[in-house]
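Re: [ENG-882] Designed sequences occasionally contain unexpected residues at chain ends

Forwarding the minimal case from QA. Structure tokens:
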């Protein structure tokens, strides 16, 4: 869908831009203000390949010089979009064609690693609750304003203690360990604890 009005082009470097495609939305505070134009692979540090995402934003949206960009999940089917946010200083503005560096971008979280840690919980609760719970889990770990309280209300009271334990344990591991290690560790640890 074309962006309304005149637009300005910017670029952003990511460690991983999997799932972002030309036409993906660009948002500010949840409002669509642009779209992804193209994705190229450029030489990164130490000869590594780095995704460079070109995107357009409505001209009337002034982006602070320290703007950050995060890849977010639009749904559990894998639709992704770019979410722009002002950095801490808010001083100055980006100029057309500027590139947002790696240290101010965030790739999408790795859902496979995350959900591997929650598999015992998903196996233990009513299947009708799994989809709602999974959506809330993604929202919590993706940095949206969803609260842990909302997440916990998705399961019945008899499973509340298990949900809380697994959610806190998975959150700790997910934030502290690399995604590929965290997923394996979460799964093994949770299963070991549940078997005891």
């Amino acid at each position: 869908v074309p962006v309304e009005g005149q637009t300005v082009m910017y670029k952003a470097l990511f460690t991983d831009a999997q799932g972002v495609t030309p036409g993906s939305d660009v948002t500010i505070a949840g409002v669509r203000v642009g779209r992804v134009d193209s994705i190229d692979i450029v030489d990164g540090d130490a000869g590594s390949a780095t995704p460079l995402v070109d995107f357009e934003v409505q001209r009337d949206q002034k982006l602070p010089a320290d703007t950050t960009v995060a890849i977010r999940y639009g749904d559990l089917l894998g639709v992704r979009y770019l979410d722009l946010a002002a950095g801490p200083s808010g001083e100055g503005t980006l100029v057309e064609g500027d590139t947002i560096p790696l240290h101010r971008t965030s790739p999408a979280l790795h859902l496979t690693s995350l959900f591997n840690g929650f598999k015992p919980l998903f196996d233990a609760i009513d299947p009708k609750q799994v989809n709602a719970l999974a959506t809330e889990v993604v929202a919590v770990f993706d940095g949206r304003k969803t609260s842990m309280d909302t997440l916990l209300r998705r399961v019945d009271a008899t499973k509340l203690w298990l949900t809380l334990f697994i959610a806190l344990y998975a959150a700790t591991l997910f934030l502290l360990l690399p995604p590929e290690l965290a997923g394996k560790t979460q799964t093994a640890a949770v299963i070991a604890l549940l078997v005891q």
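QA comment: On inspection the terminal residues look reasonable. The longest strand covers residues 31-43. Proposing we downgrade this to a documentation issue.
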